Amino acid sequence: MKIAIDGPAGAGKSTVAKAVARKMKFNYLDTGAMYRAAAYAMIERGIEPSDREKVLSALPGLSMKIVYKGGSQKVLIDGRDVTPYIRTPQISKGASDIAVIPELRLKLVDLQREVANEYDVVMDGRDIGTYVLPDADFKFFITASPRERAKRRYLELKETVPDADIDQIERDIIARDKTDSTREFAPLRQAEDAVLVDTTDLNREQVIELVSGMISGAV
Ligand code: C5P
Predict the structure, then answer these.
(1) Distance 92 CA to ligand 1 centre (A)
(2) Rounded Cα gap, residues 126 and 188, in angstroms
């Protein structure tokens, strides 16, 4: 079985996807982590993720693998786990910049489909229902207002970044949404057959309940 969960940055997709995967005993694939790891790998090589020509020439040498350790997903670049380094604002922007490049996307989509062929999966991202798994058994499009998404990120960040600025976070989220939804190839978009879930006025448990309820009501 395949479950696709798409939506803009910070809408709570990964929280829902992880919870649903745990309940159903499926594997969870966070495809955003793959774009983040690709951006990280380029920056490590001294390449700007937005520099299409340089990214394209480095692409054949980019070795990415997805492994599951203790139930959680790790992204390996050249055999090294880069998962701890990919959650910074610089990498968020880099991921969105590199995600515009179709050749890079195709390479990652191949890997994503390999995982879906091997396991039952809950996959989250931007183009899962529209492009990666158009035949998914369930599709959800999870969203919330930009302010609410910024507020959630701010509360997460506050612990480790005491000077986090909610207005700056909101501006970054809006900029990333724009890059993601206006790119030509596989943009962020709700699939026609996806269920829209607006989480602006819902808490985490309510969203998980709603999505898992729709799945278990239908299987
Ligand atoms: O979901 P997350 O915020 O980690 O994704 C980081 C970036 O990776 C997104 O802003 C988007 O540009 C890109 N992405 C994508 N397609 C996906 C998943 C993520 O373009 N399926």
Answers:
(1) 8
(2) 5
CATH assignment of the domain containing 194:
3.40.50.300
DSSP tag of 42? H
| Counted domains in the chain | 1
> Residue 23 annotated as binding?
no
Task: Tell whether ligand 1 has an atom less than 6 A from the beta carbon of residue 153.
Answer: no
d(CA 141, CA 144): 10
- Residue 23 to residue 197: CA distance in whole angstroms: 19
8 C-alpha to ligand 1 centroid (Å): 8
**What's the rounded Cα separation, in Å, for the pair 193 and 138?**
9
- Rounded to whole angstroms, the Cα distance separating 2 from 120 reads 6
Domain around 186: 2-212
For residue 218, being part of any structural domain is answered with no
Is residue 110 a part of any domain in this protein? Answer: yes
What's this model's pTM, rounded to 2 decimal places? Answer: 0.95
| Rounded Cα gap, residues 38 and 91, in angstroms | 9
Residue 178 lies in a domain: yes
Q: Is residue 127 part of a domain?
A: yes
pLDDT of 169-217, one tens digit each? 999 999 999 999 999 999 999 999 999 999 999 999 999 999 999 998 7
What number does the ligand 1 atom closest to the CA of 31 have?
Answer: 18
CA dist 13 and 125 (Å) reads 8
